[in-house]
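Reviewers asked in the last cycle whether our approach scales beyond single polypeptides. To address this, we selected a multi-component target totalling 1356 residues and predicted its structure end to end. The input consisted of the following lines:
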Amino acid sequence: MIRFTNDYSEGCHPSILEAMAATNTEGNPGYSLDPHSEHAHALIRQAIGRPDADVHFLVGGTQTNTTAIAAFLRPYEAVIAASSGHICVHETGAIEASGHKCIACPAESGKLTPAAIRAACAAHTDEHMVRPRMIYVSQTTEIGTLYSLAELEALRSVCDELGLLFYLDGARLGSGLAAGDATLPDLGRLCDAFYIGGTKNGALFGEALVLLKDELKPCFRYNIKQRGGMLAKGWLLGIQFEQLFRGSRYVELAAHANEMALKLKEGIAALGYSFLCDSVTNQQFPILPDRVVEALKGDFGFEFNCKPDEAHTCIRLVTSWATPQENVDAFLKALADLS
Amino acid sequence: MIRFTNDYSEGCHPSILEAMAATNTEGNPGYSLDPHSEHAHALIRQAIGRPDADVHFLVGGTQTNTTAIAAFLRPYEAVIAASSGHICVHETGAIEASGHKCIACPAESGKLTPAAIRAACAAHTDEHMVRPRMIYVSQTTEIGTLYSLAELEALRSVCDELGLLFYLDGARLGSGLAAGDATLPDLGRLCDAFYIGGTKNGALFGEALVLLKDELKPCFRYNIKQRGGMLAKGWLLGIQFEQLFRGSRYVELAAHANEMALKLKEGIAALGYSFLCDSVTNQQFPILPDRVVEALKGDFGFEFNCKPDEAHTCIRLVTSWATPQENVDAFLKALADLS
Amino acid sequence: MIRFTNDYSEGCHPSILEAMAATNTEGNPGYSLDPHSEHAHALIRQAIGRPDADVHFLVGGTQTNTTAIAAFLRPYEAVIAASSGHICVHETGAIEASGHKCIACPAESGKLTPAAIRAACAAHTDEHMVRPRMIYVSQTTEIGTLYSLAELEALRSVCDELGLLFYLDGARLGSGLAAGDATLPDLGRLCDAFYIGGTKNGALFGEALVLLKDELKPCFRYNIKQRGGMLAKGWLLGIQFEQLFRGSRYVELAAHANEMALKLKEGIAALGYSFLCDSVTNQQFPILPDRVVEALKGDFGFEFNCKPDEAHTCIRLVTSWATPQENVDAFLKALADLS
Amino acid sequence: MIRFTNDYSEGCHPSILEAMAATNTEGNPGYSLDPHSEHAHALIRQAIGRPDADVHFLVGGTQTNTTAIAAFLRPYEAVIAASSGHICVHETGAIEASGHKCIACPAESGKLTPAAIRAACAAHTDEHMVRPRMIYVSQTTEIGTLYSLAELEALRSVCDELGLLFYLDGARLGSGLAAGDATLPDLGRLCDAFYIGGTKNGALFGEALVLLKDELKPCFRYNIKQRGGMLAKGWLLGIQFEQLFRGSRYVELAAHANEMALKLKEGIAALGYSFLCDSVTNQQFPILPDRVVEALKGDFGFEFNCKPDEAHTCIRLVTSWATPQENVDAFLKALADLS
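The resulting structure, written as structure tokens, was:
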């Protein structure tokens, strides 16, 4: 079975296992109050060009989103997101379970737009409705699309105009950095908070939440602990981000994933197939005849996305830092044989 | 100022104030454990033909909806509603504040349809998404439309098919009973729980929540107390529903409101104006030239609904048990003068 | 049956019913945005000597406490209260249901002390524990005792020292004002927020929440709505507080209740019985032989408090603005006959 | 620095890192739906003698406690625990943040007793108070004491008598199994749910939650996801528990920790010092002169527990599966030199 199922099917970059083995018995304080975590915080502050940022490591994405959003909002405040946003669909109502409404907006190619944000705010006029207070965007989006720097700057403007916080979910931020024109310093400049995903880009687990706006910083560790996200052996997170932010490794790992995805894309397109959207990142959504999809299932792992018509199926192919070229070649060969 | 602003601008039916005065010093146990409340429970059980029903009195609608929905659902379960449903829009995220997602569906004339329910359930497939567990419908709806008996029966069928609870918000149930073909015994037969609105039909305040499905009944008073809905002088609720359910008063009061609304509707239509939807209940949504709306504002109270085009405004006119015929006449005369 | 069961067994002061009848058809905007509510707000601001205060009317005590505390605290913050405090015991976990821990402290005569507050704060040292952020005290307390002005000033000092908010539950504030040396202007000067109880002092229902600290004021109506506490016919609350704050009626009603309670106390003491605590307010806790308690049950209503020893029972006797002298006399005569 | 600070200062048993390296690129389905997790589930079911048990892996203890307790309780229900219980003190109000009150009871040597449970239930009599529904005990307790099999059976009896669920926090269950007479099959027979701690007994992270009572099982994975506890690379948990439950390794690792602790205990006692309590597990609480404690701080890591008197300090010494004998010897030598 060759898996294009997701970008979290393998363990981690070998350097991480090596670092874990090397530090296994060194003895460290718990709860991310250790030198590895501090060092990794510093590396991330440097990479985003914000020495004043607070960095917190959490284990997973839903946990990070919920902890951040619940910490940022007052009880009656709500978060605006694209209707396809991860928090709207794939977190089992975690945001609502923390007491807050997600205002789901129509998305354009999986992206939240200034127009949608303005419409959402205009529709919430008084105390009989929730009060929109922040926006949530995913870079890259759930369908592999990408916000350009100009788009992120436009979101920042509308947030300034409407008094909204700007939060970015970077579960696949590596892929976005490698494929797009917005850099980590751009995010450090534009966002009020965002997270840098480790799980889907070479770590065993771990997300680095970056708090930029001062009012979001006080007592944040209380929120992490209360929501069950404070890892006892927190240095394990520090060690992983030390490795991911060694040189330009974080972007390089993602660049490989993107490269493999683009080879898939080119090969599939060359066979005459179309796509759900034009993705330049590590998720590709080709539309294939049902018969072909059925035949591929035996040897390849992938997820069903949707049925654009009676005879075709859109599937999701995901590559990762660990995807070998030969897997891509095998898929394209099998597809060619079936076409 | 003649108000068509809403159906809760006046106090209560005179019989209620008389009953309050008559019982003011009689001394009663607190928290609705008094003879008036028990009597009123019995009257309601009788009216719906379900001697096994549990009846609980609460003060207001948002409180009733939140208490019921939060009591019925497990933490990961969600409620399906029309996107125009009161809980989706006008309760300041009260349902989300209790931890639950409202799955907002496209509505047809303000109504939730079996097709929309099926689509919502089909879209929620596994533990990464909330689990749809109940439907919420308003009778009458937020735009004055009405579920027919056949429509309610169809909703019951889809609930049975999909394992969903059927909950009905009866803030304006009186108007629905007076205008439609579904009776209180029909609701007693079809719903798992519903409430009978007092606030908008002659009471000072108060809603009667009816629990029909046995598994929803145990310990329900704990939920009322925890959510701040247990009125110390609970007999005040009992007294009001004793008066509302004296003979057929509950439907008669609403029938008057409907009659006044239909006179408005006929008069407005006779002047050549159209409506947002075809309402046969106590809320009417005429579409008028902006100039006319502006001119009416001086003497009449009403709420803005929407702007269907550049030159027109849709307003909401609401009548109540207390609306005098002369107010209707005055409005129609003013409108005629402006037309 | 002569009731000393509680102070909410009767309806309301007759002036309130008269005012309701007089205004029944006048037509008012909803949700406490009406002239009666505004007038009552002004009367209360004047009575406490704080023209800058925000006043909000809610229906009941548990609702008021939960709405206020949940609005004031960040998710990881906790409220400190005496272990006998209403929020710790008799609100079905409403504060916890809003997400916050109540730190229960040992009480002295039902009162929270500066020493207990300091100990609670000293025991909560880091992010693995909740962060104490406010104190909750009841005036009068759940066992009828009273904070003196000096005690309230000491509480203010410890709050200033430790960065805590000072919140006072005034469900029985009338009784406290009539019996003690702390005035409404004192509360206006010392508290960050408090509420003035209507339900137990002459109203049908209603509590007036007073917000004094500026940071607690913004968007407060959102909290009221979200927690189901925004009464549609909000002017009913305004009308009641207009009547209660007409002249010195609020304190006079409570003074009568206290006077009746003190007559009970004196009469019971004259028969040689002792009390759980020395109460000068409208709740008295005499300790009587079990035999006597049993015999009194036939004609008098009261609540069981505790069993101080095998042969004795402590009962709670509560008087109200409506308690007639003859009820007190009847009780004392019956007790004398049994003694 | 020689650390007796806690039992989570080191990484993991070497076999775990080896297994991670060996499986790093094998490719696995996410979210614990992989063969390693399934195998580890089977090993645990076998070890507890309950083939019908549901096993779920979570990352940490607070997360496991909150997920379980919030899933088991209805909104108005509460959990009974010793006042020193982890959920009452050291989880930043996580249980309250999920909406539930912890009823804190006086503990005997850190243990919850049937008498305390009965008293807690007797004190909660009606819907104005929370409804006690489960008990929480820690094996071993927060101060290193241990429930005997007879004590656990007595707790089961009182739970049966009062209709309570029996939940056991096994963060340090290894130490308890190695030191006491209650076995895993005993827990499988007596508890409704419990968890087997990995973090403090040889794993990098991970706790195995065991659900025994059928009504607690349905849809449990929804709760894990909603509370942010579903690890994307869930097989990492499976791999770790495969290693911990290989033969009798789980108990052996803990037995070593206990042995080191008992050597500390004997050595300290031989020098004439006393202890806070008589612990036979991996946490020891010696009471030492302040001067000695100060002097030890330079070379040894440990936590402050309390000040039993002016001149003495009680410290906590914790050993782990990784504590070398030489660390114990070094501490005892240093203590002897200071004595």
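The first strand of chain C starts at residue 2 and ends at 3. We regard this as preliminary and will revisit it once experimental data from Aim 1 are available.
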